[in-house]
Amino acid sequence: MGGPLPLGDPAPADGRLPVELRVDESLPFSAYLHVPFCRVRCGYCDFNTYTSTELRGAKQDEYADTLIREIALARDVLAEAGPLRPLETVFFGGGTPTLLPAGDLGRMLAAVVDAFGIRDGAEVTVEANPDTVTPEVVRTLVDAGVNRLSIGMQSAVPHVLAALDRTHRPENVSTAVRAARDAGLDVSVDLIYGAPGESLADWETSLDVALALEPDHISAYALIIEDGTKLARQIRRGEVPAPDDDLQADMYELADRRLAAAGFDWYEVSNWSRPVTESDPQDHRSLHNLAYWRGSDWWGFGPGAHSHVAGLRWWNVKHPAAYAQRLSAGESPAAGREQPDAEARTLERVLLQSRLAEGLPIADIAAGRRERVAELISDGLVDAASALRDKRVRLTLRGRLLADAVVRALTD
Q1: Which residues form the signal peptide (predicted)?
Q2: What is the pLDDT of residues 51-76, one digit of tens each?
């Protein structure tokens, strides 16, 4: 069910933004639609998700109608803050969005598009567990306007999937990818490395299988142990080993080599995509995630979802039952909100944009810390040519492995 919500100021029951806030019409606007349902809770997962036994009064078959109420509220709230902007990206995340009927996802998508409009060619992504993807599901999603499927592969090795409490069969990943390809969807696969008992050879197997699927995009995330998860408790009791930092670094370097050799470009520390070419002019990066990393505006719909508009951040109540009760009463589901000050915004900008291949403008670093760029170049963490020629902080491979240290150097 995820960690606690942030501390912040109370959010008004009507969800209205502060009267002094006005949206920047030039800033892209996106929508995130959270579907908080899972068949089984994975041992490493700290997301705001719920199995059927944890719903306590919330009903999956009523969820789409509940979320559509929040969409109507969002339109009213944003119409008071300035001109409505058409959506640049839409992302269904979870949880497992495809646990809902594909028709429900389609109705939610139609509602948010009707409320705000959508740019021609906008990216519309649905996350999916491989076991929930069928040709029929994919056809319904395509008919609704979805054009990208993000498939939770995690690993191709059975004992690694078991260590992560993943229940899908490895062979179902290729079935899901084939169904998506046959329907003309862009395909991304997600991988996790560093699970208990996973060797470098196991990780290489997963990379080989993922590349053989010929996706457009691959995400590879180091396993992080979150407090309160089953895996954290197992490690604390000594039942399984904690991730090995050195092994995870070796796994990252292997992934970067193999993906580069296969023609993928890294564009964020944990993400690679096929490049734009004359024969394939489509941008295969996750444009929705880029909107987060670049500080655009978005509204997050659903329990526990976070939003960011005109410098204001807010987050919804976590449990689906509480979320439904608020909206049924005609109230906003927002639990709290905050307006970060300039220092906090600078810290976030450095944290996020330094992870991008396009780099962070040196001008965006606080003036008293810019001299540290030279030290980072000397330590082999920042590319010298990019800093001198483009005036941007761009991480080297070693810098990507030590990205948190780079952020500390530029902000502490």
Answers
A1: none
A2: 877 888 788 999 999 999 999 999 99
Residue written as tokens 């590879």?
220
DSSP code of 216?
S
Percentages helix, strand, coil for the chain (3-state, rounded to 5) are 40, 20, 40
Give the helix/strand (H/E) hosting 375: helix 372-378
Question: Is the distance from CB of 373 to CB of 387 less than 8 angstroms?
Answer: yes
Q: Where are the beta strands (DSSP E) in 77-185?
A: 87-94, 118-128, 148-154
> 388: how many CB neighbours lie within 10 A of its CB?
11
What pLDDT, on a 0 to 100 scale, did the predictor assign at position 7?
Answer: 73
Please give the Cα distance from 45 to 154 (Å, whole number).
Answer: 12
**What is the rounded distance in angstroms from the CA atom of residue 260 to the CA atom of residue 186?**
19
Reported as type and span, the H/E element at residue 267 is strand 265-268
Give residue 3's pLDDT: 66
**Separation in Å, CA 378 to CA 92, 266, 351:** 42, 23, 20
Q: Which of 194, 277, 186, 256 is nearest to 231 (CA)?
A: 194
Query: What would the two tokens of residue 73 be?
Result: 């509220």
- 30 forms beta bridges with 89, 298
Q: How far is CA 219 from CA 94, 151, 182, 255, 280, in A?
A: 16, 10, 22, 10, 20
Closest Cα partner for 130 from 109, 102, 150?
150
For 127-184, how does the pLDDT look when each residue is reduced to its tens digit (9 = 90+)? 999 999 999 999 999 999 999 999 999 999 999 999 999 988 888 999 999 999 999 9
Q: Write the DSSP symbol of residue 153.
A: E
Token couple for 387:
């800093």
State pTM to two decimals: 0.95
The vertex-167 CA angle with 165 and 170, nearest 5°, equals 115
pLDDT single digits (tens) 110-124: 999 999 999 999 999
Which residues, listed in sequence order, are joined to residue 382 by a DSSP beta bridge?
A: 395
Compute the Cα dihedral for 221, 222, 226, 232 and give only its sign. Answer: positive
C-alpha–C-alpha distance, residues 262 and 264, integer Å:
6
CB-CB contact of 348 with 292 (8 Å): no
3-class secondary structure, 175: helix
For residues 157 and 162, give the distance between their C-alpha atoms in angstroms, rounded to a whole number: 9
Cβ atoms of 225 and 235 closer than 8 Å: yes
List, in order of start, the domains of the chain with CATH numbers. Answer: 9-293 (3.20.20.70), 341-412 (1.10.10)
Tokens for 9? 């100021």
